[in-house]
C-alpha cells in the first residue's frame, strides 16, 4: 500500500484534478514570469558600463508597443485563469457529492454506496465517527476503495483545518459550525489527515493516517471495531481532554499504542457536540475541551432531537 505524504502523488480523482489545476496554473503563470527572470539579467548585461553597442536614450520614457506587451499579456493570462479556475472551483466544490455524473465527467468509477464519516477536531487528535456503521476511530481514518466518503466536520475546541492531501483539499472547522468534504480513492494507499491550522503545543501530533483499503479489508476493520469498548457521551468527555492519542489511551485505561477504535453507543454524538455551541449562551471553561480548566465531569453534552 502506497504511502502518500504530499498532494503531488494523489490516489484519488479529486486530489488528482487539484494537482492538474496547480500544474497548469503554474505553467500558464510562467508565461509572464519567465521573461522577467530571463530578461532582467540580460538587460543588466547589455546595458553594462562600457558596452558601446548599447544605445543610450536619456529622454526615452514611453513606448506604446512595449506597454501593450507588458500589460496586455498578463491581463490576458489573468482573464483566462479567472474563467478556467472559476469552473474548477465549482467542479471541485468540497460540498458537492461525488456521484455518477461527476464520475463520468472526471473518468473514474464508483463501486459502492457513499460512506458517511463525521470528523471532530480535538486538542490534539482527530475523532472519526461512522454513524451508519456504528463505530468510531481516534487517530486513524479508513475508507474503502471505490466508495465516496461524505464527511461532516466540526471542532470541539479552537478553529482547525483538516487536509488529506493524497485524496482531497483542506476544509476549515469551527466550534458550532459544520463543514463538508468529499473524497474517493481509486486504489489502495495511505495519506496523512493533518491539521493545517496551528492550535497549540501539541499541534505536530495532530496527524492521523487516512487509509484507503480494499472492500474486504474495510469490512474486517469494521467488524473488529464493533467489538471494541463503547464510545458514549461520558467516554467522549474523557477523550476530549487535551492530549494526543497516547494520552487518550492512558486517560481511558486502554493499554497499547496506535489508533483507538470504539463501538458507537450514541449515533447522535456528532450532533450533540455541535449543539454544545448552539445553546445561545457561553460555554463555561470547565465544559470547554481544550481549556486549561476543562473537567470531564462538568462537560455534559446537550440532548438533540432525532
Automatic annotation (TrEMBL):
A Gene Ontology BP annotation from the UniProt entry: ATP synthesis coupled electron transport
Protein name: Cytochrome o ubiquinol oxidase subunit 2
Organism: Allosediminivita pacifica
Comp. bias intervals (Basic and acidic residues): 295-306
Record membrane topology: Multi-pass membrane protein
Bilayer-spanning residue ranges: 22-47, 68-90
A single GO cellular-component term on record: plasma membrane
Keywords recorded for this protein, A-Z: Cell membrane, Electron transport, Membrane, Transmembrane, Transmembrane helix, Transport
UniProt keyword annotation of Membrane present: yes
Keyword Cell membrane part of the UniProt annotation: yes
GO molecular-function terms, A-Z: copper ion binding; cytochrome-c oxidase activity
Span list, region Disordered: 278-306
Subcellular location: Cell membrane
Domain (Cytochrome oxidase subunit II copper A binding) ranges: 112-224
Family of the protein in this entry: Belongs to the cytochrome c oxidase subunit 2 family.
Amino acid at each position: 500500500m502506497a504511502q502518500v505524504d504530499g498532494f503531488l502523488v494523489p490516489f484519488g480523482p479529486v486530489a488528482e484534478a487539484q494537482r492538474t489545476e496547480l500544474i497548469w496554473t503554474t505553467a500558464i503563470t510562467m508565461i509572464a514570469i519567465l521573461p522577467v527572470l530571463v530578461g532582467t539579467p540580460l538587460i543588466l548585461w547589455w546595458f553594462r558600463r562600457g558596452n558601446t553597442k548599447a544605445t543610450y536614450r536619456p529622454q526615452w520614457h514611453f513606448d506604446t508597443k512595449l506597454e501593450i506587451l507588458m500589460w496586455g499579456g498578463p491581463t490576458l493570462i489573468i482573464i483566462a485563469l479567472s474563467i478556467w479556475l472559476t469552473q474548477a472551483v465549482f467542479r471541485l466544490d468540497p460540498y458537492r457529492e461525488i456521484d455518477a455524473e461527476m464520475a463520468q465527467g472526471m473518468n473514474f468509477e464508483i463501486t459502492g454506496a457513499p460512506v458517511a464519516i463525521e470528523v471532530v477536531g480535538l486538542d490534539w487528535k482527530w475523532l472519526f465517527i461512522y454513524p451508519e456503521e456504528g463505530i468510531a476511530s481516534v487517530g486513524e481514518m479508513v475508507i474503502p476503495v471505490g466508495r465516496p466518503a461524505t464527511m461532516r466536520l466540526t471542532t470541539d475546541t479552537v478553529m482547525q483545518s483538516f487536509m488529506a492531501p493524497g485524496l482531497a483539499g483542506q476544509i476549515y472547522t469551527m466550534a458550532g459550525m459544520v463543514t463538508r468534504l468529499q473524497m474517493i480513492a481509486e486504489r489502495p494507499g495511505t495519506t496523512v489527515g493533518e491539521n493545517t491550522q496551528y492550535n497549540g503545543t501539541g499541534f505536530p501530533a495532530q496527524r492521523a493516517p487516512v487509509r484507503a483499503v480494499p472492500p474486504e479489508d474495510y469490512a474486517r476493520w469494521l467488524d473488529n471495531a464493533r467489538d471494541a469498548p463503547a464510545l458514549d457521551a461520558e467516554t467522549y468527555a474523557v477523550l476530549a481532554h487535551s492530549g494526543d492519542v497516547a494520552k487518550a489511551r492512558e486517560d481511558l485505561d486502554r493499554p497499547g499504542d496506535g489508533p483507538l477504535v470504539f463501538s458507537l453507543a450514541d449515533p447522535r454524538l456528532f450532533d450533540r457536540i455541535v449543539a454544545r455551541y448552539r445553546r445561545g449562551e457561553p460555554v463555561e471553561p470547565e465544559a470547554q475541551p481544550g481549556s486549561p480548566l476543562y473537567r470531564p465531569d462538568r462537560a455534559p453534552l446537550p440532548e438533540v432531537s432525532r
